[in-house]
Amino acid sequence: MPRHDAQGVLAHRVAGARCALVALLLIAPSIALAAKLPDSVKTTDPLRSPAWDAMVARHLDGGPVEFDERVQVTVPPTAEDALAVPVEVRVDDTLTGVEELRLIADLNPIPLILSYRPTRADPFISFRFKVEQSTPVRAAARTKDGVWHVGGAWLSAAGGGCTAPSHGTGEGMWRDQLNQVSGGLWARGEDRSRLKLRVMHPMDTGLAAGIPVFHIESLRVLDAKGQELALIKTYEPLSENPVLSFELKHRGPVRIEGRDIQGNLIQARVGP
Amino acid sequence: MRVWRPIVAACCGLGIAGAALAAATFDYGLKAKEIAEGVHLFEGRMEHFTRENGGNIVNTGYLETSAGAVVIDTGPSRRYGEQMRAAIEKQTGKGIAQVFVTHAHPDHFLGDQAFASDTLSALPATRAAIQTGGDDLAANLYRMVGGWMEGTEAVAPAHDAKPGPIVIGGRALRLLALAGHTGADLAVYDEKTRTLFAGDLVFFQRAPTTPNADIGQWLSALDQLEKIDFAVLVPGHGPVVKDKTAIAQTRAYLRWLRTALQGAARQGLDPTEAMQIQVPAEFAKLAVLQEEFQRSVVHLYPAMELETLKKAPH
């Protein structure tokens, strides 16, 4: 369970400094070459991803970006099921004012998994996604000042999850159940609830031969008065029949409103 | 610290070179051990698949008969199957009369290529599972163990194994058609020595694997195995035992696994949270425990979670 904690990041930086010293002693010519490189992603990205600069430009509005150990991504060390890798994102209490979370798998053919606005909810989300190959999994938390605070973990995967047809589309069964919702609400502390949702949807990526892209576009969680508790926008990599969890600053029943990219509506009520 | 780093690096380099040399010959070093009269075991390591062990983490074996050997499972690769067959033929001076594949997991059937196709049999659902999913399982094992797998392709056994008594070359056996570890699990019992090859229905001192498991069915299968009057039990993974401790251990772990995960699901926990559950001390000595427990969460938890969710109509 790689968890990107404060100690891990610190250890990484110290190890990096030691490696540089050893390299200087042993292989001076190559360090001289390395010194010519700009202070780029390779030295700043703790996960050393080749695609990170592109991720910032395409999916994080060009930054500014800070690697922040308070944004914690938990994934299993290896993807046992490439079609449904469980991911959990938590943000430490000391990082306040998080307005949006974006989830990105750098090396997936479609990197952006979802964006989440925890309107009256904790900056926490849990979901499953499809992975095509081993990749960093990132959570970027945007605070009020516009800075993206980024945490992440490497996921090892045999892959193939993005280019496989969904079970539902393969079997033609989904039409009867499309956009049906199941849910559960659990009390958490005095004033919070865990909401877990499952929405029936093939979530086709468009990358499997002959099957066009078809996925859920958005889900809103509302209280009984119709006030927004949370808003999630979802993209192709989210798993088929996605299961999502939220931590709401709310007790009592909730309403779900959403749609997929063909305009089919998703509507549900979940009680405790 | 700085001073030692290059030395550590040099030692690591030598270690890797040594491992690469051993692996380059791709010799599993298979040596059969006679565990009862005319009953032989190739014991696998209690590890996960690695490039060092080449997938040799499984127990396979054979029984001597006047018509040739009866082989139980063929191992993780073509090379394993070939080396196993050569070892058996050398040891017995006879050919292979019959091969039983216990179930459709890659470490148990990917050596099938080494054996004549008309000698191979398995339960019908095992044959079907190898036919449909065997190539994917082989591809995944390639990724984990590398060159050991060269030339390996999935071969589904040509014949159905039929439950009940069967005599091969004068040796009386009993085949048991069970399920739970996978959709079809074959156990083989030798009447003369009262040896039970339990396949992966029984693990011992190693955490059970659950990618295709039905825990309820598996527990009933263990009840049936426990009724058999065996003197020696060969688990799919782990050391041979002469009593029921391996059955009891497998049962206790599966019961705990089911109860713990159902409890987590009822509290609304997510899979990543369920993976953090502390495994009880009684299982701490099982090999590859944490890895297998985390894999089991991925296998078993989604269905348990769905049982806690209610339909939420508009």
UniProtKB/TrEMBL annotation, chain A:
Pfam families: SoxY (PF13501), SoxZ (PF08770). Residues 64-162 form the Ig-like SoxY domain. Keywords: Signal. The keyword Signal applies. Gene3D superfamilies: Immunoglobulins, SoxY domain. Residues 1-34 form the signal peptide. Residues 192-264 form the Sulphur oxidation protein SoxZ domain. This is Sulfur-oxidizing protein SoxY. SUPFAM superfamilies: E set domains. It comes from Panacagrimonas perspica.
TrEMBL record, chain B:
Gene3D superfamilies: Ribonuclease Z/Hydroxyacylglutathione hydrolase-like (3.60.15.10). It comes from the Bacteria. InterPro entries: Metallo-B-lactamas (IPR001279), NDM-1-like (IPR050855), RibonucZ/Hydroxyglut_hydro (IPR036866), SoxH-rel_PQQ_1 (IPR030811). Transmembrane segments: none annotated. Keywords: Signal. Residues 57-237 form the Metallo-beta-lactamase domain. SUPFAM superfamilies: Metallo-hydrolase/oxidoreductase. GO terms for biological process: antibiotic catabolic process. Belongs to the metallo-beta-lactamase superfamily. Class-B beta-lactamase family. This is Putative sulfatase. It comes from Panacagrimonas perspica. The lineage of its organism: Bacteria, Pseudomonadati, Pseudomonadota, Gammaproteobacteria, Nevskiales.
